[in-house]
Design goal:
The chain is mostly helical and 420 residues long. The protein folds into 2 domains: 67-296, no CATH class; 305-420, no CATH class. Helices cover 73% and strands 1% of the residues. Strands 1-2 form a two-stranded antiparallel sheet. Helix 2 (129-162) packs antiparallel against helix 3 (166-193), helix 6 runs antiparallel to helix 7 and helix 8 packs across helix 11 (371-393).
């Protein structure tokens, strides 16, 4: 494999390491060297000896907000607020005030498990909190109202043709199709209006888990609250429902919708928004099938849970681990290319692009009172690596190169703030 060398006009060998993982593979013709640091030789390695004075956080170090992402979040908040006028009365009618309060509190526990998983998955390249907020609001409020509005029409259109009785149709067809569509609409909006933050499978999983966590939270309020309101033995009924939904299956919705996010993320990694939009339809199929399979478990629930659902959960964990490993390798390789262009030293790449190196860097920086600057540098370096990946992927190269120049300037200021 070869790449073009703009200085010599010849094609130089393209290192096999330029494609460090299956997730970061790039076509040979798209490869281009990282821009050279015109400031010259780096004056020190990280970490140096820290002087006692503290350095302020550098200007411009925060992530730049695109108009599309800001508008998306604003629209999400408005839609979420409006949706509450449909969702809250529905919950209160079905649960009563006491059931609603108890269900709300009990639902926080499985929600906490899902959000903790999101944080663990998202630690390497954290998504903007405002977009995670949009994803949660979409799942907890907007997607619920969309589901409630669409379900009657779907039932009228598809119910008679299915040949199933009303209850079976509602559980195994209607709920999987309508709910997965409603939840995944949020992912589609993220791809369309926050494209730079939804550019890989890990991003897709993070956003999908957040949407699904919000949806399951509201749905759990309904189920837990109804166990209080409709049972002659509410304590026992609530314990049984909580064990089923809060202990045995807190990640069920996350895994269903996560498959859609995963497929959309792989498409987005190709740098083509149209392909990512098409992947929305493709990704809905496995999500709906998984959802229907879960809802179809009946008399042999325990056997199916152990033999089918547990392996699916373990497979999901394995996929996420493999994605994280590939993401780490990709970050390290792209930062090596920036190091070759003079933006970092080779030792700094290990510090910025490995888990052990990052932990060591943060401990060192916090001991000198510069933890926030180091944390900002770690995040900025990771964003820079993925910006380079977008540049090498092909489409919208010029726009990504402009973003790269801004990020390189931020990284240089952050690095200087940490080492001086």
């Amino acid at each position: 494999m070869t790449s073009h060398n703009p200085r010599s006009g010849r094609r130089a060998p393209l290192s096999e390491q330029a494609n460090p993982s299956w997730m970061g593979h790039i076509p040979e013709e798209n490869y281009r060297p990282a821009p050279v640091n015109s400031a010259g030789r780096l004056r020190a390695d990280l970490p140096p000896a820290l002087p006692p004075a503290l350095s302020p956080a550098p200007p411009g170090a925060g992530s730049r907000r695109s108009a599309g992402a800001v508008g998306l979040v604003a629209a999400g908040v408005v839609l979420g607020f409006v949706s509450l006028f449909l969702v809250l009365p529905f919950l209160l009618v079905n649960t009563g005030v006491t059931g609603f309060v108890v269900g709300f509190v009990a639902s926080l526990l499985p929600l906490g498990a899902v959000l903790f998983a999101v944080r663990v998955i998202d630690r390497w390249e954290p998504e903007p909190r405002r977009l995670l907020l949009f994803a949660f609001i979409w799942g907890a409020s907007v997607s619920i109202s969309v589901t409630m509005l669409i379900q009657p029409f779907f039932s009228l259109a598809a119910g008679p043709a299915s040949g199933l009785d009303a209850q079976t149709f509602a559980v195994t067809v209607q709920a999987p199709v309508v709910e997965e569509f409603a939840k995944s609409l949020g992912l589609l909006l993220l791809v369309l209006f926050a494209r730079k933050h939804f550019d890989g499978p890990v991003d897709g999983v993070v956003f999908a888990f957040t949407v699904a966590g919000g949806f399951a939270f509201t749905e759990n309020i309904l189920y837990f609250g109804r166990a209080i309101a409709e049972s002659s033995d509410p304590g026992t009924e609530l314990a049984m429902v909580f064990f089923l939904r809060g202990v045995m299956s807190p990640f069920a919705h996350a895994i269903f919708t996560g498959t859609t996010g995963l497929i959309m993320g792989f498409a987005a990694r190709r740098g083509n928004t149209g392909l990512a939009v098409a992947a929305f339809g493709v990704g809905l199929v496995p999500a709906m099938l998984l959802h229907s399979g879960w809802n179809s478990m009946g008399r042999n629930f325990l056997a199916q849970y152990v033999l089918v659902q547990v392996p699916i959960f373990l497979l999901a964990v394995l996929v996420i681990v493999l994605l994280r490993v590939a993401e780490n390798r990709l970050t390290r390789q792209r930062l090596r290319e920036y190091a070759a262009a003079g933006w970092f030293t080779a030792a700094e790449v290990d510090l910025l692009a490995t888990g052990a190196g990052r932990r060591s860097a943060l401990r060192w920086a916090r001991s000198g009172g510069r933890g926030p600057q180091m944390k900002a540098l770690l995040h900025a370096a990771t964003r820079l690596a993925f910006t380079r990946q977008r540049i090498l992927s092909g489409p919208d190269v010029r726009a990504h190169q402009i973003d790269e120049q801004h990020q390189l300037a931020d990284v240089a200021v952050l690095r200087a703030a940490v080492i001086r």
